[in-house]
Write a structure and sequence with these properties.
Layout: H1 13-21, H2 29-47, H3 64-67, H4 69-75, H5 81-90, H6 98-107, H7 112-131, H8 150-158, H9 160-171, H10 184-187, H11 191-198, H12 205-208, H13 215-232, E1 250-253, E2 256-263, E3 268-276, E4 282-290, E5 295-299, E6 305-308, E7 311-320, E8 326-334, E9 337-345, H14 352-356, E10 369-371, E11 378-380, H15 382-385, E12 392-395, E13 402-405, E14 417-420, E15 426-428, E16 441-444, E17 449-452, E18 468-475, E19 480-487, E20 497-502, E21 505-515, E22 518-527, E23 533-538, E24 540-546, E25 552-558, E26 566-571
Antiparallel strand pairs: 1-26, 2-3, 3-4, 4-5, 6-7, 7-8, 8-9, 10-11, 12-13, 13-14, 14-15, 16-17, 17-18, 18-19, 20-21, 21-22, 22-23, 24-25, 25-26
């Protein structure tokens, strides 16, 4: 697990931090009692006689801030720093890490170098405590601690070199790690603590912590990890992958994208945009966009829509029925040649719009019918749907079978992914099922095959990214599955990465890059057949869709956190 520094901040950040520190009191009463008991056990030695901590007991969410010793300290005015700072320094080795962040905050106005050094020390101790928890879900709590010293965090961004030097001084301290304070301050906020409290189970502190024999190795790992982190502070964090020098044609579609977008074929893209009319009213319109930037209006969709393999299906009407179902009416075909189709469905239902809208979540269907995101046709199969229609599956193109997930899921992650061929044989997919979402499956006509790739953020390992990512091709005509490994640059870590083939090479979409200087823009990358990687676009990527002929990629993005989203098309089979 990478527990490096993250920048977190908001107007009510201290309240948010306290809500996390006291989150066990926001649940049921029995959980509050259990958490209070564990907190008292964990901090008895540290709080019994210390002037900063006192012996206050947290009694409930309404009185938490007034009674929590850390909140009381944090609320003291900065005018009291002359008295508080010496006390904090003298007691640094018997206080939980959040007090080191508080010390850093109070030192900042007068001694920025010392403030950054104590901040680094708090980071190291917090990560060491978090790694000693057996419950990994508790570790996320370290990301809230920077909220305590927001001004210091902002200051490190202005002088990265000084921050790196301060961090190295902190790592060189002989008392960097101390075991006088129990790590229960963070362990008790994990899911294991919550479940134990609800179930009325009382566990010994040893049950919450990894064996003491492993602590020395954890300290060394934290020291090495932070040494690399602080060493990087004085270095530029530019993308190591060079921008492409190939002049690929690129167009930007006007209008604000409000929904998904899907390729009708290799040269036409269907998208819904919001446009402002003469009277100032906004309307959502569906249109077919061509590669020259021109468009052909389709209409105003009254609900879901789908496009693929030369077919468009868009909802025109919805009628509620006595049976609690709905009669949905669609126009199906192409502009100027629509046919009407009606279906009776109960909500929720799995439709192609979820895949084409880049949904990473799954609804538990109430019907045995599913819509194919590849050509918009519907199929009904009660056997595949199983009891209460709870098993997830969706049809491929006609005659190509279906994709099925077992056991049934009611959360965001699919399990046991398999291709059910048209002859009924089930073929397991050689891809990490935990990382599959609806957007993991794409059909490419130039290969006459379906490409299946995981969402990278779902399976990042503590050891770092792999050199290549397991993916697969499904060849329905040949009835076989081929395993492939998509190349990945281990030096370019990202939060979320998607992969796709193209005629120009392997494409990779990264929403953002994670660097020692915080989050940087990601973009669109291309790994050419010769193994060379280049960056096609540097931007904050939101979603993408590669054309079925493998030549063009449409991507939704924005250039800044507050900027508008844009939809661009890049043609990889031509040059200007």
């Amino acid at each position: 697990m990478n527990l490096n520094h993250r920048n977190v901040g908001s107007a009510s950040s201290m309240d948010l931090l306290l809500r996390w520190l006291l989150m066990c009191f926001a649940a049921v009463a029995v959980l509050a009692v259990a958490c209070e008991s564990r907190a008292e056990e964990a901090n008895t030695n540290a709080t019994s006689s210390h002037p900063l901590l006192g012996n206050a007991r947290i009694v409930g969410p309404k009185d938490a801030r007034r009674n929590d010793p850390f909140a009381v300290l944090h609320d003291k005015p900065m005018s009291e720093n002359e008295a508080l700072i010496p006390q904090l320094i003298a007691s640094a080795n018997v206080l939980p890490p959040q007090y080191l962040y508080e010390l850093s905050r109070r030192l900042w106005p007068a001694d920025k170098a010392a403030a950054m050094e104590w901040l680094a020390g708090g980071m190291a101790r917090a990560r060491y405590d978090a790694l000693r928890c057996t419950d990994k879900s508790a570790r996320q709590g370290v990301y809230y601690l920077p909220m305590i010293a927001e001004e210091v965090i902002k200051g490190t961004e202005q002088d990265r070199k000084a921050y790196g030097e301060a961090g190295k001084r902190a790592l060189a301290r002989s008392d960097l790690f101390v075991d006088a304070v129990s790590p229960m301050w963070i362990c008790m906020h994990g899911m294991s603590a919550i479940n134990s409290a609800i179930q009325g189970r009382k566990l010994a502190e040893s049950d919450w912590l990894v064996p003491a024999a492993e602590w020395a190795a954890l300290r060394e790992n934290v020291r090495k990890d932070l040494a690399r982190f602080f060493d990087e502070q004085g270095k530029p964090q530019d993308d190591p992958i060079p921008p492409s020098k190939t002049p690929y044609p690129r167009i930007s579609l006007p209008g604000r994208l409000v929904g998904g977008y899907a390729w009708l074929d290799g040269e036409r893209l269907v998208a819904a945009t919001t446009e402002t009319g003469p009277a100032g009213k906004q309307a959502t319109r569906l249109a077919v966009w061509k590669l020259d930037g021109s468009k052909e209006e389709i209409g105003v969709p009254n609900g879901i829509w789908c496009a693929g393999n030369g077919v468009i299906a868009w909802q025109t009407e919805s009628e509620k029925l006595v049976s609690k179902a709905e009669r949905l009416t669609f126009n199906v075909g192409l502009p100027g040649a629509w046919t009407s189709q009606s279906m009776e469905l109960r909500r929720p239902f799995l439709n192609a719009g979820m895949a084409q809208g880049f949904s990473q979540s799954w609804s538990l269907p109430a019907n045995p019918v599913r819509q194919s995101p590849f050509d918009c046709h519907w199929e009904t199969n009660e056997s595949l749907s199983g009891p209460k229609f709870a098993t997830q599956w969706f049809p491929l193109l006609p005659g190509h079978g279906v994709i099925q997930f077992e056991p049934p899921v009611n959360a965001s992650l699919a399990r046991e992914a398999a291709w059910v061929r048209k002859d009924g044989e089930t073929v397991r997919l050689p891809v990490d099922e935990r990382a599959l979402t609806l957007e993991s499956f794409r059909y490419f006509s130039w290969k006459k095959a379906y490409f299946v790739a995981p969402l990278w953020s779902r399976f990042r390992q503590e050891s770092g990214p792999p050199a290549c990512v397991p993916a697969a091709w499904i060849y329905p005509v040949e009835g076989r599955v081929e395993e492939v490994c998509v190349p990945f640059d281990t030096a370019n870590q990202s939060n979320a990465v998607l992969f796709s083939p193209s005629r120009a090479g392997w494409l990779r979409m990264a929403s953002a890059r994670i660097t020692a200087h915080g989050q940087k823009p990601g973009g669109l990358y291309l790994v050419k057949p010769n193994g060379q990687t280049e960056k096609l676009a540097e931007t904050q990527m939101d979603s993408w869709n590669v054309s079925p002929d493998g030549c063009r990629v449409a991507f939704r993005h924005r250039k800044s956190d507050t900027g508008p989203y844009e939809l661009d098309i890049l043609d990889l089979c031509r040059t200007k």
